[in-house]
## 1
Amino acid sequence: MAYGLTVNNDSGQVIIDSDISHFHFAGKYNSASDVAGGTLQNHTGNTDNDGGNFPYANLNSLGSTVGHIYKYNITQADISTKPPMCFIKPTSTGSSAPFAGIIRMHFESGYWKVELLQSTHTNPGPVLYVFTTLDQLTLGSDSYGLRVMDSSSAVTFDSQNRPLRIKGSGDITSPSLAHTGSLGSSWLATLDVNCTPSSMTHSASSIAIDKQIYYVPSVAHCALQYTHSASDSGIHDWNSYAWARNDIYWAFYRSSFRILSTSTLQCSYAIYYRGHLARTAADSGFVLSLSALFGNIDADVGSAGMVPYTNSSRNVGESQGVIITNSDWYA
């Protein structure tokens, strides 16, 4: 450039550039509300038959553990074009810590609404450290420090507003599936997260593990489905009977993250939505045909369409950029 200011570190990386709108600290946010992830559970149909062998097992089971959604209300001056950059300060770290990731951000009722999915419920939930550009903030009023402007006199960097300091970074990809192995047996699905987390090593190990906060988008997702059906007919105590049962379980997963050690971030999944539909029919008379029973159930369950796709995943090969910084710098 022919004007302005550029500051490089000793590795030649640009630290400050007057032509770039740098991100600055906008505040810490606790969740405004929280709710368990979605569940759809429903059983309809008759189960009474004189044959005595109708399979009642797990009619009301779910076959998975749903995650928890934390909702945050972020205030900014410009609500239409510049969503904030949200770093997650997790509730805990290490190999027993839950996985968490931001899954949705949209504007509503005067706020940027941010939704964070965590694999298990904790109280309190994670804290968000929010950063944005200076045109969304009130500039500092001290008479010292460094303030940089671009060619139109817009302030792009101000040391008084605590600019984002990147301590570690890297790329991470998600596991190819949220659950490997059998999806269920008989009338019970096993759709809990069951995969080896992927890992990324970064250079922010000098920051204490409980002070690290991370930014990484949740872009990978996975949908799995398990179905089981059976039927029987015969004569019992001089009565003809027929029954049929058809079940479908499913789970929809989003990628999520945790801090494993001072130098390692991991990626796995949390369940965003799950469900179980059971459709049954039974009769002890002489007039109900088994084919009629199955026809009604298949039409009801087989085309349920509760997930956008089945037994596959999306965006798992995408490298997701990770940024690590120190929460103490923004206490």
Note: The chain has a mean pLDDT of 87.
## 2
Amino acid sequence: MAQLHVEISNDPEEWSKFNICSPQSNPFQSYDWLKVYSEIFNLSFNILFVKKGEEVVSGLIYPTKRKIFFNVLTPLLFSYYSGIMFQDLGKEKRQKKIVEKNESILKIHEHLKENLDFFVLKLHYTIDDVRQFKWLGYKIKPRHTFILNIESLEKLWDGFSNSLKRKIKDAQEKGFTVIKTKSVEKIAEQQILSFERSGEKFFIGFDKLKDLLENLVMKNLLTVYHLVDKNNEVIASRGISIWNGKAYDVIAGMVEREISNSSHFLMWKIFEDLSLNNVKEFDFCGADIEKVAFFKMQFGGEIKISFEVSYTKGILKFFNFG
């Protein structure tokens, strides 16, 4: 039986084929997504496979940067998943799957530990067994999201509460409309405005955020929707990434401080557009902030738990890094 081994790859096409076929497939770990970030934030990124003979078992694509004297892997802005991905093991026996996954995690861990001083992996919700990370000394933090089936608009609408239906109809009667656009200026402004209401400064400046979003739109990795009132003012925006028949809630912002009925209308019109374009599933990409979780919960998605795992080595342990 062939042993598992680590292989560094410089082949974007090999990674892309693996990503599309993996049960953890997502846009945030696509080559094109990482390429945009690497150019704007001056990052290097690496492609790593664990193979059994020539067969890919698992993989990781990850960006790194230098912080003072240390090499670190930290989550990227608007990138909800950044963890190890696995090949679909199909009809393999459950015990064999567990053993092979744990061996893969160990191989990737050994490589990361050798090359990095601190690293964070945001695992996909389909990875529910994180004992190997615990045994290897990782900190483990649970995260939550809602996954919504939008394949049938009729079933989706029927599943809404009467209260939610009234909110959507009320916004429509008041003259709100939703448009798709390639312009990112409004969503960048509104994202910063919404974030800074908490009293904290946003992570990057407006120009860099605008540049990032423009490049994601240009690569067809982000679709922007504007909520427009009867005075033709854009009062809220949402950016969605469509990938492999699924949609991901990447970025949002609004002018108003409180969520209004029009925000529910915006989501419904987005679901309509996505469903008509053969998107079957919507990942809300986060439901751990109380107000945000309550808003997303109203649409009836299934709650999913995923895990963020982090590892610190050497002197950084004494500074509680990360």
Note: The longest strand covers residues 55-67.
## 3
Amino acid sequence: MLDGRIVEFLRDKNVPIYTREIYLNSKGLSHLSRDSKKKRGAGLNEQDIVKIPDILKSPSAVYFDEAKGKLNVLYCSHAGGTCAKMIKLVIDTKYRRKKEAFSILKTAGYVEEANLKSYAEIFGDVESR
């Protein structure tokens, strides 16, 4: 479910939110676990795919990709007090399929912090997690 801070931020940006609930369909699951992502090191392993509901409930940080108009939820795994890897979940709050409209998890993968510089932080702090 989308946190109230996320909803407020997106409303301020005039980004539609079709549902506060976040759905994952079989197409999205196939997309986030495809071989091409795994070969380049971006595809989630099975342990991290299973963690997705927990990540959505308690993310380390939430960012907004202003260039693409997508919500990005980040989770930082701890290793020696630093963030060894981040899991990025991309959520489309304005997804339409036929007559239905809802928020959906579009894809997920591992991301390096250096690739987050163009994102607007909604809340959280990857550095301190």
Note: The chain has a mean pLDDT of 80.
